[in-house]
Design a protein that fits this description.
The chain is built from 14 helices and 21 strands. About 30% of the residues lie in helices and about 15% in strands. Bound molecules: NADP nicotinamide-adenine-dinucleotide phosphate.
């Protein structure tokens, strides 16, 4: 099977005579880290280690176990092109099935021996003399590698809001990305803070259990219907027997999602059409005009992530659910007080407040050439060349890095392009005996000028608060063009923008 895939991906097994492979550390065993590891494995490169803070693979799909967790991108596209699954049970698979798929990939491609679980890399320091990344783990171990690949992505550190009195609450409290399954919500008064992509998935489920649910909405979201359905057995069989049909299905999903891209240009026909779809959905599901008005966004569609749900609005019209749109003033021992002076009692507070999305690579202190800190470098907003490299940080490659997130299509598609590009750099290092790959500052700044110019034409800078941008308003997270444009760019851009250094040490061993 691996040899078939090698042929399809045109990777070819590396000849040992071509030079020893570099030692590679991959940070994180999530969707991106696993993708990188599989592609290395398929290229016959074994000298890599995946450092993972949790006890297994899956990343965000391991962390997010809240009730109703599912992907809002259809599963046939939210899966690796080189590891298709014919028997996805539904269009939008739920978290257990996605995690099982990723676990299966780890087994199928033989990644387990490369996994160092329960080990977080806390520090990475570039040594210019030896051209190595010196890593320190949370156990205090030191590991030296030639190439560092971050698969930490954008959604791995939960964000807790800075609300007065947050620590004074005496009931149970947890974040949606760290769901506490020991807390039985049956018969409890529950407060949910936030109404983003995560919250709208678990609110309908927990509304069934709680005696009363308060949903705190700071701003409304655009919500469109979720075209979900179970795949009939006949269709799964068809996909398995005729891969061409499965591939056509995947391509069709990609094409339909790609057609939503013009929505991000304010005033476009697509934006009007999408707003109409969302408003019709709202009118169908909520008849009370006052409630409708409170959940109608006051900013253009696409400015924040467009949510898909068929059961969120119906949950808000339940007698035992209240939507609270007054701002939160403070949290007290037994509940939440809003700025209108109302005290809302609660036994449990659940934070559906998202992630620290603009602090890329936050869990790792990264120091590049000349003692330069990556976090200081990014103080005004993260940026990278093609989303994958930063000048002054040689042989560091980012997956799902700055300006590579999407609001309309599958980030897995983007990650595969990034991994393909990084593979080209790694195979060039091996082939030519290079020690360091450092993007030229000019290429980096030119690229990012172009990205930001394209961002200015989108709706993301319109008047909404979103996780796509920093507090000062710089859009650091999203790719401002189509996924086809990114794919083409990654496919056609060579490695010419990188300074390379020759004469790597002869011996290379996996970083274990
Ligand atoms: P999010 O979209 O960032 O939502 C956070 C929510 O918390 C927002 O409603 C926000 O209000 C609110 N909030 C933050 N600080 C607050 C404060 N101080 N007071 C009151 N409310 C506050 O986070 P998320 O729902 O976890 O989703 C994040 C991303 O994860 C998604 O956009 C998506 O890309 C990904 N995700 C994906 C899936 C999937 O199916 N693939 C599922 C879940 C999540 P404002 O809107 O006013 O800022």
């Amino acid at each position: 099977m691996l040899s078939d895939l090698r042929t399809r991906l045109q990777l070819g097994r590396q000849s040992p005579a071509a030079g020893a492979p570099p030692r590679i550390a991959i940070l994180g065993a999530g969707v991106a880290g696993l993708c990188m590891a599989i592609r290395l494995k398929l290229a016959g490169i074994e000298s890599f280690t995946i450092f993972e803070k949790s006890d297994g693979v899956g990343g965000t799909w391991r962390d997010n176990t809240y009730p109703g967790a599912s992907c809002d991108v259809p599963s046939h596209l939210y899966s690796y092109s080189f590891a298709p699954k014919s028997d996805w049970t539904r269009v939008f698979a739920e978290q257990p099935e996605i995690l099982a798929y990723l676990e299966g990939c780890a087994d199928r491609f033989g990644l387990r021996p490369h996994l160092r679980a329960r080990t977080a890399v806390t520090e990475a320091r570039w040594d210019d003399d030896t051209a190595e990344w010196q890593l320190t783990t949370d156990a205090g171990d030191r590991v030296d590698v030639d190439v560092l690949v971050s698969g930490l992505g954008q959604l791995n550190v939960p964000f807790y809001p800075d609300i007065d009195g947050i620590d004074s609450f005496e009931g149970m409290t947890f974040h949606s990305a760290r769901w506490n399954h020991d807390v039985d919500l049956t018969g409890k008064r529950v407060a949910v803070i936030g109404n983003g992509a995560s919250a709208i998935q678990f609110i309908p489920r927990i509304a069934e259990q709680a005696a009363h649910l308060d949903v705190y909405q700071r701003s409304a979201n655009w919500v469109v219907p979720k075209p979900d359905a179970a795949y009939p057995d006949k269709m799964k069989t068809l996909f398995a027997r005729w891969p061409v049909i499965r591939r056509a299905h995947r391509a069709q999903i990609w094409g339909l999602l790609e057609m939503r891209w013009p929505m991000f240009h304010d005033g476009s026909k697509k934006a009007h059409a999408m707003e109409k779809v969302a408003l019709t959905h709202l009118e169908k599901q909520i008849s009370d005009p006052a409630l409708r008005a409170r959940v109608t966004p006051d900013y253009p569609i696409g400015c924040k992530r467009v949510l898909i749900s068929n059961d969120y609005y119906p949950s808000l019209v339940r007698d035992d659910v209240a939507l609270i749109t007054s701002s939160i003033d403070r949290i007290v021992a037994d509940g939440v007080v809003t700025t209108d002076g109302v005290h809302h009692p609660a036994d449990v507070i659940i934070y559906g407040t998202g992630f620290q999305t603009t602090n890329f690579l936050a869990p790792v202190e990264i120091t590049g050439r000349d003692g330069q800190s990556l976090h200081e470098r990014w103080a005004k907003g993260a940026e990278a060349y093609l989303g994958v490299a930063v000048d002054g940080f040689p042989s560091l490659f980012l997956l799902y890095g700055p300006n590579t997130n999407l609001g309309h299509n599958s980030v897995m598609f983007m990650m595969e392009s990034q991994v393909g590009y990084v593979m080209r750099a790694i195979t060039a290092m091996q082939r030519d005996g290079l020690t360091a790959f450092d993007v030229r500052p000019q290429a980096m700044s030119e690229y990012n000028r172009g990205v930001q110019a394209a961002v200015h034409e989108t709706v993301w800078e319109a008047g909404c608060r979103s996780w796509y941008k920093t507090s000062s308003g710089k859009v650091t997270n999203n790719w401002p063009k189509t996924t086809a444009a990114y794919w083409y760019k990654m496919r056609t851009t060579g490695l010419g923008a990188f300074n390379r250094r020759a004469a790597r040490r002869p011996a290379a061993h996996a970083a274990r």
